[in-house]
Amino acid sequence: MTTYSQDKTESDRRVLELLSQNFGNISTAATEIINLEAILNLPKGTEHFIADIHGESEAFRHILKNASGNIKRKVNEIFSTSLREDDIRQLCSLIYYPERKLALIRSTEKDLENFYQITLHQLIKVLQSVSSKYSRSKVRKSLPSEFAYIIEELLHESPSEENKQPYYNRIIESIISTGQAEVFIRAISHVIQHLSIDQLHLLGDIYDRGDGAHLVLDTLLSYRDFDIQWGNHDVLWMGAACGNEACIANVLRISLRYGNMTTLEDGYGINLVPLATFAMEKYGDDPCDIFMPKDNSDEEPLSDKNRRLIAKMHKAIAIIQFKLEGQIIERHPEWNMGERRLLHLIDLKDSTIKLNGKTYPLKDSNLPTLNPSDPYALTEEEKVLMEKLTHSFLVSDKLKSHISIFYSHGSLYAVHNSNLLFHASMPLNEDGTLKDVAVNGKPYHGKELLQQIELLMRSAVNSDTPDQERKNAVDYYLYAWCGPDSPLFDKARMTTFERYFIANKETHQEEKGWYYHLRDNEEICDMILDAFGVFGEHRHIINGHVPVMVGSGENPVKANGKLMVIDGGFSKAYHDTTGIAGYTLVYHSRGFELVQHEPFTSAEEAVKNGTDIISTNRLVELSSHRMRVRDTDRGRELLGQIEELRELLYAYRRGLIKERK
Fold first, then answer.
1. What count of other Cβ atoms lies within 10 Å of the Cβ of residue 158?
2. Count helices and strands in the chain by DSSP H and E runs
3. HSE value, Cβ hemisphere, 13 Å, CA-based, for 418
4. What are the pLDDT digits (tens) for 629-640?
5. Structural element, H or E, at residue 259
6. What is the pLDDT of residues 259-272, one digit of tens each?
7. Rounded Cα–Cα distance for residues 497 and 343 (Å)
8. Are 635 and 628 in contact (CB under 8 A)?
9. Where are the alpha helices (DSSP H) in 506-624?
10. In percent, how much of the chain has pLDDT > 90?
11. CB 3.0–4.6 Å: which of 169, 195, 528, 584 could bond 595 by disulfide?
């Protein structure tokens, strides 16, 4: 143990002087040491890792409410011998959706007082179980202030203890007699939900495809401990919120492709009328067949009229996107993306395009806004349209609020408890070494590469960034989305144009970077972990981005357990591809479990019939001992605080620092 001594530096003394402002005497410092030492020996909190939500807000929120099945497991452990299976389902449904479930029960239950009495006793037992791994102080902070004292009393008293039984029972009776039973049930249910997940890690791609990304972010605004690793679809929206017109066009195109305008219009108030008007003027007689929105079988089908309007809007913004991307790529030759400028290769007379020495027929050559002599220039009408759309994105306060979450709680990568988290890829050379990638003209690789990219992207929203630097940073969001060496993409090209306009699938290929080919190699994973300073007996890389083809037998656990890919296809668009409906990776005090989810029906079904997401748990890694707080990053921080407090005690006892009253 290090102790304070006279030859300590002046800066060390100042640290202890500052510490003494909070712990002003021997008694308070010693008490805090005792408290922190006790916390170190509590079980490790449960972390949940989720990737690629893609706007599936209802399934996401349900997984938070049921803690990826953990709450039902707790309820089963407590009541399996005293409650029928249907009663357990109904109790879980009440914990997940207390407001809606209580409204249903109120309309059908004949003896509400008896229901309240039984339910309050049951909920207290569940809360005792989920809160048992936390200190009283942490539990207290999770309690609603109006009921904190009462809940604490119920948590720490037993109804079976003879001396306290009348006291305990009278609290329950008084809650009911004062008309507070339902409010109390709602409060306890929400506390159970929150304490069941200690830390939530979101590995990118909250946006696009599904229609509820804004609802996911609304949920996070009210959540406690979470972090986000930026995904390629997220940075597309971040770029759009910065005013990058190519990103705006991409956001609109993807939304129209999936027939989903809810996030844009209802979530953020983006005015799509100018785009609809422009599309009808330019493509009114065009069937736009190849731009028809994808069907979503789980939603009410679009009318034929709406489908055709969306197709025209889809085509209009796609052409604008290809022009805007061409302009930005020309401004940045250092990106080496010149081959993605394709519009000048089109022969409108022959309805063909020449790529890599081959000529391909176009599936659609009705391009009235394309000027063959200057194909990347917007028409005057397109300029006006983009000004209106950009303005709509820039003035949306709700969009600003949601995008700010990615900067305040997010980053390109993170390290938590010996786990390296990033969304997609780590640029590698063919021999498995870390690849040098230029950022602002300088080569970087590995950890420093991701740090420099993040600094560049953050400079786009910093008020003190010089104008030209800010413009370059705003432009960079397009490269982050689809650049060949972007760690969020890492493919040779994004063949969006080819997939729309060329039938020959040989042009659709998007060759993946070497990371995707080498990531099953344990030595490669160890090299990456070493480069990021991730150490420990059990260390891992955790990714999303590429859906795991479970239905085809692909294993999400790779490299002898060093890498876990947890994109299981939350998005309905991927359910047929992956064969499941998402993963949650759960890291608790006993080890790692991978929870595989089946498609979620609806919250309404969960409330009415007690249905739940059917989940299958798979043990990935079991720890040799139950992990405690001292085994975590938080534990190392607490050990450092204890060391400083012991130095403060030494200084007090030697009179080197004076105690305060």
1. 11
2. 28, 17
3. 16
4. 999 999 999 999
5. none
6. 989 999 999 999 99
7. 9
8. yes
9. 514-518, 522-531, 575-578, 603-609
10. 75
11. 584
Q: Distance between CA atoms of 545 and 204, rounded to whole angstroms?
A: 8
Helix (H, G, I), strand (E, B) or coil at 285: coil
Distances (CA, A) of 411 to 51, 269, 457, 475, 539: 14, 27, 10, 19, 20
Are residues 54 and 577 in contact, defined by beta-carbon separation less than 8 angstroms? Answer: no
Q: Looking at this protein, which amino acid is placed at residue 632?
A: T
Residue (of 510, 506, 486) closest to 496 by Cα position: 510
What's the farthest any 2 CA atoms get from each other in the chain? 94
Give the 3-state secondary structure of residue 139.
helix
Q: Can you tell me which residue has the tokens 């599904």?
A: 210
Whether residue 363 contacts residue 517, with contact meaning beta carbons closer than 8 Å, is answered with no
Give CB contacts under 8 A, 24+ apart, made by 20-23: 20/648, 20/657, 20/660, 23/645, 23/648
Which H/E stretch holds residue 396?
A: none
Contact 122, 79 (CB under 8 A): yes
End-to-end Cα distance, the chain: 28
Res. 228: pLDDT tops 60: yes
Assess contact for 610 and 246: CB atoms under 8 A: no
> At 177, which amino acid appears?
S
Model confidence at 20: pLDDT above 60? yes
Contact 518, 428 (CB under 8 A): yes
Q: Which residues contact 195 (CB under 8 A, 6 or more apart)?
A: 127, 130, 131, 134, 139, 142
Cβ-contact 639, 34 below 8 angstroms: no
Report residue 556 as tokens. Answer: 């999400």
Residue type (1 letter), 135 = S
Distance CA 468, CA 475 (A): 11
